[in-house]
Specification:
about 350 residues; Metal Binding Protein, Guanine Nucleotide Exchange Factor, Chain A; Peptide Methionine Sulfoxide Reductase, Chain A; 2 domains; six-stranded antiparallel beta sheet; about 20% helix; disordered N terminus; binds zinc ion
């Protein structure tokens, strides 16, 4: 009996918007709109700084002009649902009974929002999922239309209305993401993912500029940097520890691994930031830290990076930017990189410490 009531409640919660406008019909689109206050600028509350999800996707909010251009290509029903916060009638969506394996992407911008792995039959008549493809891909907003408080869900990248999320889903999340088929585009496993539905093609760079705490801190904040990791490189001991490196016998340099989106930030810009952050004219020393592990180095991951780094160093020398002081930065192909212990990662943020490294952004 209890489970039947839960089902009835689920249907009621979602069907209310449809009943409001009278009899629901698959052939007549429901015009009741819900969601954010119309005309409320989604953009104003969202930073345009590049943002990336843990799944490796570019989730930087699109500009209103970009959304407008994409929305112009939608069919009328997808436009109504995604741009006007519409709700499609229950048991009518094309994806309700889709049992194929694959990914459900935003019909507007292509960002993967849900996976077939998390789809379940809620009995409500709308495609339902117990979690997102990546929590950062789906934004939540309080929706007080219809005199009740619901949680609207939208695409985090383009702001397209998707549906609502409720707390009566199955374990372990207990969530039911209630979707409109019209707001989604399904891509079956084995089919090519459109470019907009693919993760970012990243590149990786390595920089040694003295103590890695400050260098990692600022690289992490680079616009177009997905992640920066403190570690040790160019030494001759495997699985090396901080204590061993501090002993000065392993040949390692404290190094920061930088994973970046070359469409958003160039390797050249990272080199410039690196030379702002540290003093490339000091040998085996930065600020208060002395020793070979604090040497200045650029560890390259290919011929192109090597050429670009060497040319950059020559250019900086020719510019006399550092006066008569010679640049001692080593440019070498990367050896092995070992991530540092967890307590060294984002050390400055965790410990509220300050550092002599200059903010290059
Ligand atoms: Zn989208």
């Amino acid at each position: 009996m209890a489970s039947r009531w839960i089902l009835v409640r689920r249907v009621l919660v979602m069907i209310v918007p449809v009943l409001f406008i009278g009899e629901a019909s698959c052939h007549r689109a429901a015009s009741q709109e819900s969601g954010r206050k119309k005309g409320a600028p989604v953009e104003s509350a969202r930073s345009r700084q590049p943002r990336y999800s843990k799944a490796g996707y570019d989730i930087t909010p699109l500009s209103p002009e970009q959304v407008k251009a994409l929305a112009a290509k939608l069919d009328p029903e997808a436009y109504r649902v995604t741009q006007k916060s519409g709700t499609e009638p229950p048991f009518c969506g094309t994806l309700l009974d889709n049992h194929k394996e694959g990914v459900y992407t935003c019909v507007v911008c292509g960002l993967p929002l849900f996976s077939s792995r998390n789809k379940f039959n809620s009995g409500t008549g709308w495609p339902s999922f117990d979690r997102e493809f990546d929590p950062a891909h789906v934004a939540r907003h309080s929706d007080t239309t219809l005199g009740t408080t619901r949680t609207e869900i939208t695409c985090a990248r383009c702001g397209a209305h998707q549906g609502h999320v409720f707390d009566d889903g199955p374990k372990p999340t207990g969530e039911r993401h209630c979707l409109n088929s019209a707001s989604l585009k399904f891509v079956e496993n084995g089919q090519p993912l459109p470019a907009d539905s693919q993760p970012v093609k990243t590149e990786t760079a390595y920089f040694a500029g003295g103590c890695f705490w400050g260098v990692q801190h600022y690289f992490t904040r680079g616009p177009g940097v997905l992640e920066a990791t403190s570690g040790y490189a160019q030494g001759h001991v495997d699985h090396v520890t901080y204590k061993q490196v501090c002993g000065g016998e392993t040949g390692h340099a404290e190094t920061v691994k930088v994973v970046f989106d070359p469409k958003r930030i160039t390797y050249r810009r990272l080199l410039e930031a690196f030379f702002t952050m540290h003093d490339p004219t000091q040998t085996n020393r930065q600020g208060p830290d002395w020793g070979e592990q604090y040497r200045s180095g650029i560890w390259t991951t290919g011929d192109e990076q090597k050429r670009e780094a060497e040319a950059f160093v020559r250019e900086q020398e020719a510019s006399k930017r550092f006066g008569t002081r010679k640049i001692v930065t080593q440019v070498e192909p990367l050896g092995k990189f070992w991530p540092a212990e967890e307590y060294h990662q984002e050390y400055l943020a965790k410990n509220g410490a300050v550092c002599h490294v200059k903010d290059p952004w």
